[in-house]
Amino acid sequence: MDFEVGKDSRFDDDGKTKRTGNALTATTHIITVVVGAGVLALAWAMAQLGWVAGISVMVAFACISMYTYNLIADCYRYPDPVTGTRNYTYMQAVGAYLGKTMHLICGLVLYGKLAGVTVGYTITTSTSLVAIKKAICFHYKGHEADCKFSNNPYMMAFGVVQVFLSLIPNFHKLTWLSTIAAITSFGYAFIGSGLSLAIVLQGKGEPTSFTGIKIGPGLSSTDKMWKIFSALGNIALASSFATVVYDIMDTLKSCPPENQQMKKANALGITTMTILFLLCGGLGYAAFGDDTPGNILTGFGFYEPFWLVALGNVFIVIHIVGAYQLMAQPLFRVVEMGANVMWSHSDFIKKDHSFKLGSLKFSFNSFRLVWRTIFVIVATIVAMAMPFFNEFLALLGAIGFWPLIVFFPIQMHIAQKSIKRISLKWFMLQLLSLICLLVSLAAAVGSIRGIAQNINKYKIFQYKQ
């Protein structure tokens, strides 16, 4: 179809169909992405930090995120934030402003995190499926019953489901996934918060502290420090949507400018996110005090009503079945695009095969079948080897927070605005980046230590919860 770019009302300046999104729809996307299973770990993080540090850290992360995501919004177009050429992905923006080397490093971090998220989702799903079985067991056999089950069968079943879903063409374009994810994620977040609030209102809440879990016979000062580091990683993961920020921006209409609309969405989305985080974290800590479980729905701070606990975990499973694919598909595509470039004449890589089953027609690509299946199997095996919810979430948060939310946005902003080295603004931006780097390193070390301790404590592949 012939059209003159910029003059045909059906198309945008890049020749694509007119975008219709606005600040409100972008806000909805942000909230959908950030309200995940990590929210249920915030009560545990609050317990490690206490009221003062816990609230302060959540607010500080929110302020830093709002500032740096606004910098990211200004870099959607290159070189001018209003009239420049669009960057459709985070990697493309980094490459445009910072060059090919940073483009490659960004890709490694971004897709490495996506791969890690699939492992985290496998752990989370199996934990929730076991929690459903345990809720029923405790209800009928009593709260003191020995209701421990292996996570492995559930991880393997989840892996089989994901192998089949991974082979569905264009699965990532099924728009109803986001709707289901939004409904179910809010469902389990409000169930967890509501059950915590009920305990507090009944006067059954446990004692809390301004400084968090008290050092004593069961907790040394060193152990508390490591737990605080891990808690920082949990909070960092919960506040991240860098992996999809340009996907969201690419839905916005051009007038008013996309960066202005996205800044409004950042303000609304991150404010809403922070309020929800404070509610989930604060209410969970108020209900359980020093005994706050790593996940308030699977750690069995709640036993009754057992059907509501089970329903919350069902919501988690439904959410993650689709969310796994939303995170895995970009990784699948980039590997397959790279393979097509490197081995452009290989039938194994490029050729599609068709077959009929009765009246149904199917097609498959050999490389896609083998590569995606192997990936899901490896992710499942890794999850089975170290199925530790909080520590793994903290590690993912630590890996992604500094490079994706702080370092790259700041460096792109410096390049875009041509900020002089050693100037006051340059120095302050680099100081912010350094502080966040130290926080990320502390969170990474704390979570790795926690994973190592758990692996030594439990026999590999024999973990029961």
Structure description:
InterPro entries: AA_transpt_TM. It comes from Lupinus angustifolius. The chain is mainly alpha-helical. The protein has one domain: Hydantoin permease (Orthogonal Bundle). Helix content is 68%, strand content 3%. The chain has helices spanning 23-34, 42-74, 90-98, 100-141, 152-166, 176-201, 221-238, 245-249, 258-288, 306-342, 347-350, 366-385, 389-417, 424-457; strands at 77-78, 85-86, 352-357, 360-365. The strands form two sheets. A two-stranded antiparallel ribbon has the order 1-2. The protein has a two-stranded antiparallel sheet with strand order 3-4. Strand 3 (352-357) and strand 4 form a beta hairpin. The longest helix has 42 residues, at 100-141. The termini are far apart. The model is unreliable at 1-6 (pLDDT under 50).
Show unreliable segments.
Answer: 1-6
The assigned structural class equals mainly alpha
Helix content: 55-70%
DSSP E strands, number? 4
Describe the oligomeric state of these chains in a short phrase: single chain
Tally the helices: what do you get? 14
Q: Beta-strand level of the residues, as a percent range?
A: under 5%
Can you tell me the overall shape? globular
How many structurally independent domains? Answer: 1
Strand order of the largest sheet: 1-2
